[in-house]
């Protein structure tokens, strides 16, 4: 009888999971659930929104009336506090709202980039409403953003953009408290939209100034320098060729002079 009871207890112990196995099972479950949720969320976020849909436009109109009409007018016609948005297109709205520059917190030399206040779907609904008012530049597609020529993009960037944004895209100061923002970490779609719409103090680079292929090349160049921030060695804060040349002139030539003096002193 005792033997049978001992055998039953041993079997129960063998059938029972250990604490480590239970923890491992829970972790596996959490990872699987999290992965599935992330995949679903990514798929939902990447789902294209039909900007011509009446339902989307209506939702955008409601959001506009509640958040934008105070400055831009109920019909987006503009007021003394904000410009007209008729004809700016969906690209301008997607850039300004998608980077957090709009709505503005306060007036100033230019709109500051800040945390985004709307979801992607709300941003696209606002863009759809403004685009429905009059023709204007559209949000670029994925095919317009990928596969550019890095070498050509670098040349185009140095000719058209580096005087304000720095050769490494580090940004720079302009006049009257304005500035050209840093381009590191900026989404490709927003770079394209900025070239297309000319926000703040930036000129418009329409398709006659820079073709769609050239815009794509510039985006590829910016992606390359972001992934390879210092291909040539020490960054020196990306201050540019003049300051880097001055650094070499002072320290490199100084080291050569010091070595020459030391050798001369030793020989005497």
Write the layout of secondary structure elements.
Blueprint: H1 2-15, H2 19-46, H3 54-67, H4 69-72, H5 89-98, H6 120-133, H7 150-160, H8 162-165, E1 172-173, E2 179-180, H9 188-197, H10 212-227, H11 241-267
Helix pairs in contact: 3-6, 5-6, 5-9, 7-10, 9-10
Instruction: Give the CATH level 1 class of the domain at 142-229.
Output: Mainly Alpha
The share of residues in extended strands comes to: under 5%
Largest sheet, spatial ordering of strands: 1-2
SSE order, one letter for each helix or strand: HHHHHHHHEEHHH
Termini Cα gap? 105 Å
Main sheet summary: 2 strands, antiparallel
Radius of gyration: 29 Å
Helix content: 55-70%
Shape: elongated
Q: Which architecture of the domain at 142-229 does the CATH hierarchy give at level 2?
A: Orthogonal Bundle
Q: What's the CATH H-level superfamily name of the domain at 142-229? A: Cytochrome c-like domain
**Weakly predicted, low-confidence segments:** 35-47
DSSP summary, beta strand count: 2
């Amino acid at each position: 009888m005792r033997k049978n009871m001992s055998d039953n207890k041993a079997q129960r112990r063998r059938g029972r999971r250990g604490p480590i196995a239970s923890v491992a099972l829970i972790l596996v479950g959490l990872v699987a659930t999290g992965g599935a949720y992330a995949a679903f969320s990514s798929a939902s976020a990447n789902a294209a929104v039909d900007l011509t849909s009446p339902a989307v436009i209506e939702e955008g109109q409601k959001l506009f009336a509640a958040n934008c009409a105070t400055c831009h007018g109920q019909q987006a016609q503009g007021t003394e506090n904000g410009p007209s948005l008729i004809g700016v297109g969906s690209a301008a709205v997607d850039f300004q709202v998608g980077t957090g520059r709009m709505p503005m917190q306060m007036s100033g030399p230019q709109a500051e980039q800040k945390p985004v206040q709307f979801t992607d779907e709300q941003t696209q609904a606002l863009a759809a409403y403004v685009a429905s008012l009059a023709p204007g530049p559209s949000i670029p597609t994925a095919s317009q953003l990928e596969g550019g020529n890095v070498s050509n993009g670098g040349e185009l960037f140095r000719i058209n953009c580096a005087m304000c944004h720095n050769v490494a895209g580090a940004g720079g100061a302009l006049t009257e408290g304005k500035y050209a923002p840093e381009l590191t970490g900026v989404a490709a779609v927003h770079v394209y939209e900025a070239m297309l719409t000319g926000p703040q103090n930036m000129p418009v680079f329409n398709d006659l100034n820079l073709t769609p292929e050239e815009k794509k090349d510039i985006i590829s160049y910016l992606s390359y320098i972001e992934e390879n921030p210092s291909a040539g060695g020490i960054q020196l804060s990306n201050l540019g060729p003049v300051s880097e040349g001055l650094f070499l002139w002072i320290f490199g030539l100084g080291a050569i002079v010091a070595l020459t003096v030391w050798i001369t002193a030793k020989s005497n």
